[in-house]
Amino acid sequence: MHPLITYEWLYGLTECLHIIGFGLAVGSMAIVDLHLAGWGFPGTRPEAVLRELRPWFTLGVVLTTLAGLVILSTDAGRYLTHPVMVAKLVIFGLAVAFHYSWHTRVARNLVPPRVARPVAGVSLLLWTLVVFGGIFYAFT
Amino acid sequence: MPPSDVGTGLQDLAFFTAIRESHYVYPILLSTHLATLAVIGGAILVTNLRLLGRAFAGVPITVLLEQLRPWKYLGFAVMLTTGGLLAGSKASEYFVNPYFQTKLGVLILIGVHGVVFRDAVYRNPALTEAGRLTRVAGGLSLVLWVTVLSLGRWIAYFD
């Protein structure tokens, strides 16, 4: 028997860590994206915001991934064959990869809004889809 | 009237019945609730890190508070709306759920926190640097919000 099934509170605790990690990761990126898009943050440069929030983003990604893997290990067969979960994991991978590539590059260089806005939009969209994937997995 | 009866009466309203019985509305509301958590969580994280003196040292506290305030209000409004609809559609279960009750209690504490520190921290135009008072406010706020988030998750574990 998997320990998380035996001890339900441990399962709940892991899910809390998963959500705290996701809050740190997606929350910090949402702030970077809102800066990038130029919505409501006059005078603060996205590059400075990224520098401050990057460690929290990385911490959040590591925490949510580790907790997520522990949850996944309780029933890996079901998780990995479920189309919504597979889509969520792929989009999560894309979102992380997008962040460490174009997203970072755009945030670091002072690019015009016509470039920064779509990049911020793609980032926000990817993260939102990951969240929807996580919930819809449980409902389908 | 016991809370479970109030809950049953509320969730039997046609509007909440429609939400509960729809295949997609409930998960869409829940996903929106969680996605918004990220925005409001990000704004609160940044605020509290600044109040604790852990990030954005170059940005005066008042400027940071001003810039983040609209996003917090917007996020909170979406959280309350989606959360209210979710709870209303399953009111008879939620109202008697001790984790839900505790979550509401902690949310009230967050309101009290905002009022207590309003003049000294959150609406203090002279505040630029982190000090002992801002650290207390930021630390308390972090603990309260992490508690709310955890209790939200724990609602699903009561049966």
At a glance:
The complex is a heterodimer of chains A (140) and B (159). By secondary structure, chain A is an all-alpha fold.
Largest sheet of chain A: none
Cα-to-Cα separation, first versus last residue of chain B? 22 Å
Rg over alpha carbons of chain A = 17 Å
As for the number of domains of chain B, it is 1
Shape of chain A: elongated
Coarse shape of chain B:
elongated
Radius of gyration of chain B: 18 Å
The low-pLDDT segments of chain B are none
State the major sheet of chain B. none
The mean pLDDT of chain A is: 92
Distance between the termini of chain A: 25 Å
> What's the pLDDT, averaged over the residues of chain B?
93
Order of helices and strands of chain A: HHHHHH
Using DSSP, what is the number of strands of chain A?
0
Q: Which percent bin holds the helix content of chain A?
A: over 70%
Fold and architecture overview:
- The complex is a heterodimer of chains A (140) and B (159).
- Chain A is an all-alpha fold and 140 residues long.
- Chain A has one domain (3-138).
- Helix content of chain A is 86%, strand content 0%.
- The longest helix of chain A has 30 residues, at 8-37.
- The two termini of chain A are 25 Å apart.
- The mean pLDDT of chain A is 92.
- Chain B has 159 residues and is mainly α.
- Chain B has one domain (3-157).
- Chain B has helices at residues 3-11, 14-21, 25-51, 61-89, 91-94, 98-116, 118-122, 132-154.
- In chain B, α2 packs across α4, α3 runs antiparallel to α4 (61-89) and α3 runs antiparallel to α8.
- The model of chain B has no long low-confidence stretch (mean pLDDT 93).
- At the A-B interface, α2, α3 and α6 of A face α3, α4 and α8 of B.
